[in-house]
Amino acid sequence: MLAPPCPAPSIAFAVIVGLWSSVACAQVTVAPTPAAPPATPTAAKPAPTIPPDAQWHDVTTWGVEGRGWGDQERTRWFDRLPAKAEGRVTDAVWRLSHDSAGMMARFKTDAREIYARYTVSKKQVGLPHMPATGVSGLDLYARDDSGAWRWVMVTKPTEPTIETVVISGLASGTREYAAYLPLTNGVESLEIGVPAGATFEALSPRTEKPIVFYGTSITHGLCASRPGMVHTAILGRRFDRPVLNLGFSGNGKMDAAVGSLLTEIDAAVYVIDCLPNMGAADVTAKCGPLVKQLREARPTTPIVLVEDRRNTNSWILPDREKYHDANHTALKAAYEQLVKEGVQGLSYIEGDHLYGDDAEGATDASHASDLGFMRQADIFELILRAALKPRQ
């Protein structure tokens, strides 16, 4: 049966109503959307495990770089200072010297997997402003076909005792590796493992004179994401020579007791980077005596003095800016006085641009991020290359 016509008071109204009626009254059939087939769960790839016949190699049997003073007695094998330093340096410096910052073990292997088994001294494996990979991680590098050092993998500690597959699926071939030890934790024991049948050659510490850094928590490594990203380690790779990291968090203060120990190291260059832990008056009082102490014992070893970096938020903190200004002025004055007195072999690094100029180079305004450490290394490298250049 046909529907009765709609009334049409006007032609325009009739057209509009007619159109509306045709749409409203039309029978529209919408096909249902077919249900998607249930997703097939992907089986998680099992994490690699260490085989029971893995071959383990104790690092203490061949030694690490970054452990100065040769075979002098140690309280703990991985201490940065010899046992005789206890009672000579401050209690804080002695405690911090138990951290393994700057130490590096080298070896060669054709293994397709590399394992690590080690125990750190402190139960807290990470910090609020620094990840466990930097505080307590073991950071692995290898030389590529050109001979350059390239990053491989870092361990991710959650407990003080770590036994883990550091990396698997490595490309075939024998290559040299370097494992950087934890920055702000100590090491009680350390073994490197490879699968049964893989070759393994322990590489003794190199005998070239080291670059020796004496400084603060920044030199110590806060807040690098992993041990290989501290500027001292970056520079060690760029110069391809050993590095001795004597950064003591909060306690790099140009102390004569530390200076006395430094004179025993036949260094390629001494880098003195203590200003972040000092005020202008301390700089004036201590810088000249420390440099003269080193120069008397090592007449020709280059010495580099470093201004403190500016905190990345000091642009908006006037009192902090004044603190940096005063420190820089004091160090520059001490440097110029030493030069005037005829002290040779001095170099100077200004601090204004060490973290860059965009306020992005630090984790907490004071301590460098990886970006800040890389920028710092770029500036240090230029001065160190000049200082290390053989004199005519």
Structure description:
By secondary structure, the protein is an alpha/beta fold. It has two domains: 48-205, Sandwich (Jelly Rolls), CATH 2.60.120; 206-392, SGNH hydrolase (Rossmann fold). The chain contains nine helices and 14 strands. The protein has helices at residues 11-25, 91-96, 132-135, 217-220, 231-239, 256-262, 280-297, 318-340, 370-388, and strands at 55-58, 104-109, 114-120, 139-143, 149-154, 161-167, 175-180, 187-194, 200-203, 211-215, 243-247, 269-273, 303-306, 346-349. The strands form three sheets. It has a five-stranded antiparallel sheet, with helices on one face. A five-stranded parallel sheet has the order 11-10-12-13-14, sandwiched between helices. Strands 1-8-3-6 form a four-stranded antiparallel sheet, with no helix packed on it. Helix 8 (318-340) links the parallel strand 13 (303-306) and strand 14 (346-349). Helix 5 crosses helix 9 and helix 6 (256-262) packs parallel to helix 7. The longest helix is centred in the last third of the chain and has 23 residues, at 318-340. The radius of gyration is 31 Å and the shape is globular. The model is unreliable at 1-30 (pLDDT under 50).
